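Exercise 3.2. Students should predict the tertiary structure of the chain below and write it as structure tokens, then compare their answer with the key that follows.

Predict this chain's 3D structure.
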Amino acid sequence: MIIMKVYFNNSCKICRSEINLYKKENTKDIDWIDITNNSLAKKETSKNDKELLRRLHVKDKEKVIEGAEAFLYLWKKIPKYKFLYSFFKLPIIFTLFNFGYEIVAYLLYLKNKKQLKN
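Answer key:
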């Protein structure tokens, strides 16, 4: 049974490389969804192409989580990466992580926004 869906940009080399590390763990209740030209992803998340491209998104039941918080949800589900969840959920660490994530995510967005249809 799929419990969580992870929406990521498979056409971004950096995004794909990181997600592939998580996929290797074969966590059964995670569905990995490429957002590239994916109208179903837009419908399931109620996000547009730009929003989906801008950040990682996780849908857990009916709740859509994005950005740094989405990574916490993902890491919590994968036993090998639970230590990241435990560390990065700490309030001051999460604040710094979120700030850093937003910078990196924005730079990746600028690099990949050419895939958006005008």
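Discussion points: The chain has a mean pLDDT of 94. The CA atoms of residues 58 and 64 lie 6 Å apart.
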